[in-house]
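Reopening this ticket.

The earlier resolution said the output was attached, but the attachment link was broken on my side. Pasting everything inline this time so it's all in one place.
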Amino acid sequence: MMQFLSCLREGFRIAARHKRLVLVLWLAPLLPAVVLAAMAAANLGPALGPSLFADGVLDGGWFVVWSEFRSSPLDALEPILGAGVVVMVLLGLALQVVLSAGVVEVVLERRERHPFVMGVRSNLLRFARTTLLLTVGTALAAAAAWAVARGFFDLAEARADGRLDLVGVGAAGLVFLALWLPQRAAADLSRIAAVRHEQRSMTRGYLRALGAVLRRPGLFGPLTASFVVLPVALHLGYFLLRSPWTPATAAALALLLVAQQAVMVLRALFRLGFWGAEVAAFRRLGEPQLCRPRQARRTAQPTAFVEPAPAESYTI
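Inline output:
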């Protein structure tokens, strides 16, 4: 437990030394958000207009309002929930690769001049390969979680007990996190090792990092859990403070916007602190060369009896 707290504390110390990068991590995700907002404005503006639905969106019970809107003839969410979500996910993934390529170089604190730009230039392609591996692992974790949920749903139907549906959702969430969090930590650890040692064997590094994470559950278990718990607690606290309050004036809307962006800035600080904590954990492991390519094996040619010259070696 002390190791985990030490790494987390060191991570936020690293983040505090790079305040401008916190602003980058805050502003960059606005790109996919702006794209989705533009699609939403184009589709929802004419449909909503000055209506009861539009007034209800500003209230705390937004889920009920949107559910009623989805079942009404005015529903215009299909393009947003279809193509809009796909565009946002693809943009978000591409953006995360670019940001992580620069962030790792910064938090390692090796370069004094333009570390973020240099990191993006040198790390982008190998980080993209790791993202592909993590995407495959995420899909497998999601499939396992869905199988667990499906089993509970069938059991709930057979026993006519709706409580089992809720148990199934909870169990599926735990299964997904148990399978995904070690993979997420392994992806980040392999990226840090690749940058630190200038190596490019990302698949091998990913698998080695996964083994290192699984062998140190006391360190990486609470560390990766904190990466989920802290942002969830931040958003839950905001939601609890926001829900009872309905903005009715322009000043109130402006204040709400400021509060929302303050939450996003804190979330960006968390992200940078988590990267720093993983760097601290990597150093605690002794900075292993996880992405080192397999050493070429050499075999000696048998020495002839008639010719006592030394045998030559060949690379397999």
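Reporter confirms the inline version is readable. Residues 115-159 form the longest helix (45 residues). DSSP finds eleven helices and two strands in the chain.
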